[in-house]
Amino acid sequence: MLDQIHLLAAVTVLGVLEQAYFFLQVIYARRAFGISPPQISGPPEFERIFRAQVNSSEYFPIFLALLWQAGLFFHQGLAAALGLLYLYARYCYFMGYKASSSARLAPIYFSSGVLWILTAASALGILHFFLSHYVGLNVLRLLTA
Amino acid sequence: MLDQIHLLAAVTVLGVLEQAYFFLQVIYARRAFGISPPQISGPPEFERIFRAQVNSSEYFPIFLALLWQAGLFFHQGLAAALGLLYLYARYCYFMGYKASSSARLAPIYFSSGVLWILTAASALGILHFFLSHYVGLNVLRLLTA
Amino acid sequence: MLDQIHLLAAVTVLGVLEQAYFFLQVIYARRAFGISPPQISGPPEFERIFRAQVNSSEYFPIFLALLWQAGLFFHQGLAAALGLLYLYARYCYFMGYKASSSARLAPIYFSSGVLWILTAASALGILHFFLSHYVGLNVLRLLTA
């Protein structure tokens, strides 16, 4: 069973490490700008880093959900590759947002695009499973026949 | 293995699409009220939409965790049906909160009720597995004997 | 298959119950301090409880991701035990933060430590799987030979 998920597991752990890096960035920013918890407002430089972390945290479960559905129902290797691309786009988003609000836009659009591809792969894979499981229709076999 | 999770996977992807819809609503609200990131405060109309999205994001991993445990350890079809009910209640919550703070209450209570049922199903299913795995006690067989 | 994940599932459901407890604490605090949604600012006593819940929510998907990778690829029993330790540390963190900002520090460091151990266990387990799957190198057998 593990050989069907080991690439997904590896990308998941990498994703966790990235989230840890984002959390550390907020801790450093809190120290640099003297903003102690539970405070969350401050100069725009701080708020951008803070919001970049919050946004990345909100998307993390969505990313994992899509990564695993796409990996299980479509193709593990493709899902893992898209997952790496997403994590790279998230890193660019975080660094961009840290610099300026507008610099977050290009990478966030890119990361959204990757998530939509993962969504499409998940939906197609699950649809294919439904068709072959309930209707007995194997689309792939039809296409290659 | 996939036939034990395909309904859960389908509800998971639907849940992701709902989260995407909520994120888009916040983006539209930011434009409509002229509130640029990283700002998160504004008129109550904006803050209600923003908070509705944040609350839905915080509950999303909890929802997925329960959906999958209930589906794996209790009954996949029932868990998926409850999952659809939860996603519908979340939609009503979001639309209610958008209209007024009080209009969020009925659907949030309903969605909490669905989550408690999923929790009970998960707990019962896992307990049943523990009993039959460690004590050799098959409660279902006892009841039907 | 379920006997490889039943301990992880049990800890997951316990984690959900803990999150539910934290959400209820925020609801009680909102009532006690008269802070109605969508408002999220108020006296420090309220903001500490609110931030304790938000922080716990942000870490919940990270915790689950590590719990399951460590349990699947390293050792289920050890991962579940570390999971219980994490949930206990989170409870202490919440209660500490409720009392004062500084009282959150010791348990948050402890809970981070547990997450790093889970990360190491996940990474080692996945690495071990990669080595034996792709290189045909079984490190455990080498060590015990």
Automatic annotation (TrEMBL), chains A, B, C:
Coiled-coil segments on the chain, per record: none
A GO term from the CC aspect: endoplasmic reticulum membrane
TM spans (from-to): 7-28, 62-87, 108-131
A Pfam family of this chain: MAPEG
Compartment(s): Endoplasmic reticulum membrane; Nucleus membrane
Keywords, alphabetical: Leukotriene biosynthesis, Membrane, Nucleus, Transmembrane, Transmembrane helix
This protein's name: Leukotriene C4 synthase
Family: Belongs to the MAPEG family.
Top-rank taxon: Eukaryota
Main location: endoplasmic reticulum
Single GO molecular function: glutathione transferase activity
GO biological-process terms attached to the record: leukotriene biosynthetic process
Entry membrane topology: Multi-pass membrane protein
